[in-house]
Structure formats: structure tokens, C-alpha cells
Amino acid sequence: MFATITPDIGTAGLLALFTHFFMLSLLAVGGAISTAPDMQRYLVVEQHWLTDAQFSSSIAIAQAAPGPNVLFVAVLGWNVAGPLGVLATMAGCLLPSTLLSLWATRWGEQRQGSVGVRAFKAGMVPITLGLLLSTGWVLALPYIGEASHRAGALALIAVTLVVMLRTRLSPMWLVGLGAAVGALGWV
Fold it and tell me: 67 to each of 62, 91, 165, how far by Cα in Å?
């Protein structure tokens, strides 16, 4: 399925790989997976560094593994050029968003008193809460819908809401509680 020997793409190839993934990262609205068609075009059709089967298998394996969805980029890099390929693709994918986040945070902090920044922050609160609630609903629905887990799931949701609204306890404790309840089979 995977080539045991990665092609020797050289320094110029590694730089091209980094540059291409850097540019794709700037276009990745919706996550890195949204740019997979262009990654396939570049790696398979244009450069011939991977086959279609290797490309598809790389994404499938990475998506099946636990962790962030962007891991498929590391698997693609590995299959193109080993550890240096991973470095090139992951750095290319992660640097733009990291730099943009740092810049936006500093820019916002310097202008935190401005009307525009305050309005943006105030407008993002209901959007963020709505997205979090809808994600929670989607994740809880299979457990609420199943009679054998309904009581435990609703109790866990209630405890979480009360603790988050009434205390300053870190949400990580509630994640741990959820993991323990799930491991014990109560939900």
C-alpha cells in the first residue's frame, strides 16, 4: 500500500512542498481537509510523488487515528519525503494560522478599547455559545436517544451546566468526569 522507500525530492522539492502547503493553509477555510483536492493534484498529478492509492490511503489512515484532523497532512509528508516531508507539510500547514492568530491577538489587545473590537467581541459571544451548544447537542443526541443511556447522559449534562454556571472550576475536570462516567458504562 505504502512505498517503503520515499522519493529523494531534494532540498528544492522540500522547499516547494513547504511553500505549496503554506499557500494552501491560507485557503483552508473549513480545515485542512478542504484543500485535499489541490494536495492530490500537486502530490499525485503534478509532482508524481505519490500514487492515487497512496494519497487516499494516507488520508484514510490519518482520519481513522485519534487526534486532530490535520494529521493527514503529516502522513502525506511522511509518504513523500519521510521525516523531513512531515516537517515541510506540517510547518507549511500550521505556520500561517499560528502567525495570523498571534498577529490578530496582539492587534486586538492594542485596540481593545476601540468600538470595532468591542463590537466584534460582543458579537462573537452568541455565535460561539450557539456553536458550542449545537456541537454538544449533536454529540449528546445518540446517548439521549438510547433508553439505556438517557438518564446518565441527561444527568451528566445537568451536572455540567450547573458546575459551569455556578463555579469557576476548569472544564477539564468535567471532561474527566465524562470520561470516567463513560468508562464505568454509566452513559
Answer: 9, 17, 29
